[in-house]
């Protein structure tokens, strides 16, 4: 629940279940997203961060594949890399389409809105580039594009959903690591998958964002991770900032009254 | 969403490759477990995206908005208590600060020409939206108050506007705290209880400073008292915030701007009081004190702004508090 | 349009908080998917790699607005990898060059040129150079050719385009026609062809899902064929074990159960040890091996194994570095190399097999005569099984540790998984690609896997086989309809000078009475008939003499040498980028700088088109633009969306892509280019009485053209490839071909692709509506068969080996073969059939023989002919190696092919003095994000940003040893050149322990070059030209080098650095050239 003004999410909410245990890090999702949405390239910089050169989500990267090299075991996998354990984790990150979306809450223009599919979308023609959504997002997803001055992020392919097509990134994913569909059904599938992986020895597997009771009310795009969220650049316990907004308003109110009172008191005695 | 149903006999057997489990058939050599390096982030990169807000624009806006709001309140108080020159100075100051803050706000937009889109909606969930409406309520009144005050025309209207602006002023001066606190920026967000007071204090100090600077010492009593009160509140709020934030307060504690802001405010407020005692001869000193107060308030706002950005850019300020929170919740669960 | 103020809607409607419908703008209301608004959707195929993913091309207002995966495709099921997903940008992006350009000799820059003028000028250049360099005879033998012109490229092109290239250039007497198949997978054709009879992958990707154990070795499946990799994941989901044997821990390893790091270039030792393990422990599939392989066949007593010759087999000619295969023969009969009596005698006298000849096994096996003697108890000391045991006896787990750096326990795990998952009820599959092929004994790497898979009984069975993952979209097609110097369409060998004066001699030599080549006269005559039409008559040998003749190797690397020597003067690049993609890239450019003229047809301004003004040699001062006489034409090519045609994917599937839009500007298809070039040349030569002009003037060259650009009809070309009978009716299969001139057919193995006048390659029945074989999707050669040698999926008696692994079987009541796939055996041939003694051709094969292309019907564990560097794989070190061969005194493959030249120096190796100057092993490879030499990815922003710069991957150990800093620069040096790269220090590049010594490897992606958006030095600057003698493939997968921190020197100092290394290592003319 964001604020005490509950947002009504329509039935049939759709979402993503990104199962990182079968991601091959091909970045097709990144490219397919850019092709479909005509997102410009994000600069040609060699980062040295394993095979990741796009570094993170932002206005010009709506899907981002993280690469993590670790001296840790992965299930019963035999990495054969010297005397140590080793695993190479890959995970495709995206806007979470939060149940309680801070970006949406704080947007002063109504540019960001909740769609009929339960997703959160920027209306490019409305956004005035105030940038408020950028620091509001607890996941570091949304950004403001330099060239156009407006905010940009994953739309969950709003236009494609309208045409009955699945999002470009999910469609292209060679291994089905990105699964698109009815959110409730995906959540069930994810639970089953988690059990399967744990049974196979991948004790570090966990779901992220699937829980409707978490700080953002659960996410529309949730993940199966093989390590702690922060390893992939995700916050471990994100909270929608507007959860505290009532308290903020209360404090603001008291402070405003205090200011009024203080100034009044300062001028209490009439000038002689 | 594809599933495979191709089987050796060509018949359906629904099993997708999404069920593949890497490592499930291996047999690892026994190895000594490697102690885990403390990973708290992805290549040290921030979890949050850096605010696009530019310091001169938005920290400037915080300062100017506060100044305008508190000045209007001070102006109203001055007018109602028979201090016309202080009232005039404050009205003029408020309207200038308002102009500056509007400029800063619009200048920071990615699409300034779409500023009016702020008026498409009213969203209580968005301090910026609320602030816009506050501004739209406050702005015209402050304008009318200043115009009538300076020209002396329409005194009735002027008085009403002055009172209106004076009442709206505190809202303008403090809502900006909600504006920045209602983000995921750790220092800002976690400081949301003290921030409004800090901002209110800082605004009062600035308005007081403005009054001291622009009004004769004889009329500036309220300004001096407001400044002193404001500076004190500001310092107390800052101290409380730093204590409550614990390790997260590092960026605040490190901030030279904040220290300078506090020092300037306190020195300005005290100097203002002394100047007030010295009647006529205190004018120069009062002006210096006023300037110090203004500078102090500006430093505080820039300091808060910078500390926030710093906390957003270092993943540990995002991850550690959340980890602590999770640990605490777990401990509580375990207790039950 | 909705004009109401959202605030009003907010106050009056449901959405009080202003976060939903109330704030929706009119523009948002109007949002429509651009796919939904398309005027039409055109079916296409991804133009990048050989997986052959289906694409839907959305067209609106005659512009391509979106390209995405075709959900109907049984191969890809709608998915695309990053390259496939970037196809829209590739085809419509601003990077593409659409203006024809001309650089006159010595000019400093390009000038735009009118396309028609350019075509005319190119035609003039060809005519002039041809006239000038015409060679009617060479060494007294009729050659009727020109060595002055060469062409390169074809794997990115359509089959129809390759066909026209081969047809026109051959008629012009050009023999130096080559494409990527040479540098990519030519050793596959040799390795698989000699073992099984056909040179293509034995299975298809979707069938991987039925595998119980997938061994990926020499391939980085997940990175280089990402969409195909879904079928490995599918197998995994069904419980399969996935093993990756690779020097590096890659994205494939990340998804595997077991990753085995191996020293690059040591796979024969590894596979040999598995073979030994299988034999020693009696783990082979007994019934399969006895019946379906040549294990029981007895060899000649003259045979001496490499084990007895310290690494050399009997028959070696030390002077010529070549073998005579006489002593490798079966007892009592001869396995003919691909030439008849007279030529064999000639060869034996001269001591060499015509280079490249072995590749004719691409489609059909080595012809043989007689009946071999067999011992089905496998005990005879001279039977293949016993020879095999002895040959591999020293390939032990200890040896694997010592040679490959693979710990014993890991090796044993691989053996365990592989053997536990092979047998009647289980199958294992090998997947490889160029990690195996690109070695100086690459063919033998493939042979080793073939032997192992035969022993385990995994060939021809579901979930089994050897999956050769090929490279470009149509590299299989450009081998089948070869733009290769030594082949005619359908793997018919090109005739050699003097060897075959008449067609009869040629046919006699190459198409003996036994074995599958028995029908070659029909294939050849039909080809000549379709090329020369009415001019080809029985009394003129069907114009057999219109074919130019070979006199040795004319591979792409020979062409470079001939350019440097000033013999080859004109060069046509048809979608290939040798200045980046070919070994010793600097030599490629130096060769081009000696040309009179160069034509580059490409999508982008690749390095091979611009080296004369901004190449590395301009920077070092070795070349000066003003002094370079080469006249250069750049002619922009049309993309796959702008033309129709067929690609043949890695599994031999011909898939048609339909034209979606007209090409813009001067961009034209290669079909257009070849057709109009031919037309113009023919017009210019019209009326010529010159004998050498007759082949081109008599050529059938009358394709219908359509549209504003006069584009020739690709479908008409496909129809010609398919062929027709005397009445002009399309043929429906190669069984219909005749040798009397009554049929005409452009490529016999493709005969049937236009059966019934229907473009079978364009068939697109969705996979959801058919079995996994997907027989009604596209068309596969041969005869739409998807799993080759599938007779072996049944027992000798014709029943399936097991319930789980049934594929085709003998239906006794119906007296025919049946099953899921098209049986790879004559459908009516009973398992009980035994050939009468005088049987010929396929009738000579018994009812149990599954390898119907082999003359003895058996899978060849031992290759008595066809592989010129030995009948059995033997471990040799790469040409440049820091490791001494622990198995044999012969360090390197004694028969490898070298090109000593001052710009192509080799390293001292092993324990030789100077070898320690180059102490590390470099291996080169691909990244998912880029494509080959970069022409299709480095100019594409979406792909470039993902891997923007050249880098090298090194282990933490090597970084410490050499002071390399992550993210900084390093310089890598060989005796050829030095390059710089950003340093990536990673555990994924494990250091190996062999024989107590730590060996570091350096990983280099080979995609980068100076042009485009993602730049860097090309890895191929470092590689030498040293080739596999069978296939002439270059060794770029394993070479020694040095690395040091910092950037490389600029200007002349770069050459000085290289020379200083040469001096330090004592490198001279003869270094590394010993046998
Ligand atoms: N993304 C992408 N896909 C491509 C291409 C591309 O450029 N980019 N190119 C296409 C083409 S043309 C081709 S031919 C295919 C090639 O496909 P692959 O052969 O899979 O490609 P490579 O990366 O060259 O080599 C494969 C692996 O071989 C390993 N290797 C190197 N030397 C050895 C060795 O001696 N032994 C063993 N066991 N392994 C070794 C390398 O580390 C590498 O991981 O890919 C095709 N697909
Ligand atoms: N060191 C090292 N070197 C290698 C390899 C390695 O693994 N390591 N791999 C080798 C292998 S397997 C290969 S296949 C080669 C590949 O090397 P190249 O074939 O030289 O590389 P590509 O970049 O694929 O070149 C194909 C060109 O065709 C152009 N093109 C695409 N479509 C068309 C078309 O329709 N018409 C025309 N005219 N042009 C078109 C593209 O823009 C591109 O420039 O590199 C080899 N070189
Ligand atoms: S497309 Fe799929 S497999 Fe490839 S990086 Fe994205 S999520 Fe991973
Ligand atoms: S992840 Fe961030 S941008 Fe996406 S919906 Fe949630 S708050 Fe908004
Ligand atoms: S930048 Fe645009 S989308 Fe983001 S909060 Fe401001 S108006 Fe809304
Ligand atoms: S859903 Fe659409 S917009 Fe979002 S990441 Fe995927 S492709 Fe991009
Ligand atoms: S490059 Fe290969 S795997 Fe990737 S989409 Fe194209 S055909 Fe498929
Ligand atoms: Mo290739």
From TrEMBL, chain A:
It comes from the Bacteria. [4Fe-4S] cluster 4 binds at residues 107, 127, 130, 133. [4Fe-4S] cluster 3 binds at residues 95, 98, 103, 137. GO terms for molecular function: 4 iron, 4 sulfur cluster binding; metal ion binding. Keywords: 4Fe-4S, Iron, Iron-sulfur, Metal-binding, Repeat. Pfam families: Fer4_11, Fer4_4. Its cofactor is [4Fe-4S] cluster. GO terms for cellular component: cell envelope. [4Fe-4S] cluster 2 binds at residues 33, 154, 157, 169. This is 4Fe-4S dicluster domain-containing protein.
Automatic annotation (TrEMBL), chain B:
Coiled coil: none annotated. Residues 1-27 are annotated as: Disordered. It is a multi-pass membrane protein. Its main location: membrane. It is found in: Cell membrane. Keywords: Cell membrane, Membrane, Transmembrane, Transmembrane helix. It comes from the Bacteria. It holds the Pfam family NrfD. GO terms for cellular component: plasma membrane. The keyword Translocase does not apply. Belongs to the NrfD family. This is Polysulfide reductase.
UniProtKB/TrEMBL annotation, chain C:
Residues 39-95 form the 4Fe-4S Mo/W bis-MGD-type domain. The keyword Iron applies. GO terms for molecular function: 4 iron, 4 sulfur cluster binding; electron transfer activity; molybdenum ion binding; molybdopterin cofactor binding; oxidoreductase activity. Keywords: 4Fe-4S, Iron, Iron-sulfur, Metal-binding, Oxidoreductase. Pfam families: Molybdop_Fe4S4, Molybdopterin, Molydop_binding. Residues 336-376, 879-910 are annotated as: Disordered. Its main location: other. GO terms for cellular component: cell envelope. InterPro entries: Asp_de-COase-like_dom_sf, Formate_DH_Act, MoPterin_dinucl-bd_dom, Mopterin_OxRdtase, Mopterin_OxRdtase_4Fe-4S_dom. The keyword Iron-sulfur applies. Its cofactor is [4Fe-4S] cluster. One of its GO terms (biological process) is anaerobic respiration. Belongs to the prokaryotic molybdopterin-containing oxidoreductase family. This is Formate dehydrogenase.
